[in-house]
Amino acid sequence: TWQYSTNGGTNWTNGTGTSFTLAEGTHAIDAIQVGQIDVSGNVSSVVKNAGAIVVDTSDPLFAGASTANVGINAAITTIVYDAQASNLNGGNADDGITYSIKNASTS
Predict the structure, then answer these.
(1) How far apart are CA 6 and CA 68, in angstroms?
(2) For the chain, which has fewer Cβ within 10 Å, the N-terminal or C-terminal residue?
(3) Sign of the CA dihedral 12, 17, 23, 28?
(4) Who's near 6: CB < 8 A, 6+ residues apart?
(5) From which domain of life does this come (predicted)?
């Protein structure tokens, strides 16, 4: 079996499956702890988070749409918008996102 604590080891919860979900907010260094107990009752060393963990499930906020004027046949060197994204589940951060340029030819 395994247990975890989200408050620095003050309270422990029996784990189920192979993971647990952290509440939204900032979790300080050593706040998240995990330990195991085998069938003989031997207790493992407790593993603690070495850095602060921030859980933020809020949707991103944008100040508003911006317009960029690009001349016809101009060199394509201007960054109109540079979105930064992270995929915390691994893989490509752009998975599931479609980019398009209005009235643009795909040829």
Answers:
(1) 46
(2) C
(3) positive
(4) 13, 22, 23, 27, 31, 32
(5) Bacteria
**What is d(CA 4, CA 15) in angstroms, rounded to the nearest whole number?**
7
Count of Cβ atoms closer than 10 Å to residue 62 Cβ: 9
Closest by Cα among 10, 13, 11, 9 to 1: 13
* Residue type at position 107: S
pLDDT tens-place string over residues 50-104: 989 988 888 776 666 666 666 777 666 656 566 666 666 666 666 666 655 666 6
What number of other Cβ atoms are within 10 A of residue 85's Cβ? 10
Both tokens of residue 69? 């004027």
**Structure tokens that stand for 14 in this block:** 């029996």
HSE value, Cβ hemisphere, 13 Å, CA-based, for 75: 1
Nearest to 2 by CA among 34, 45, 42: 34
Which is higher by pLDDT, 31 or 83?
Answer: 31
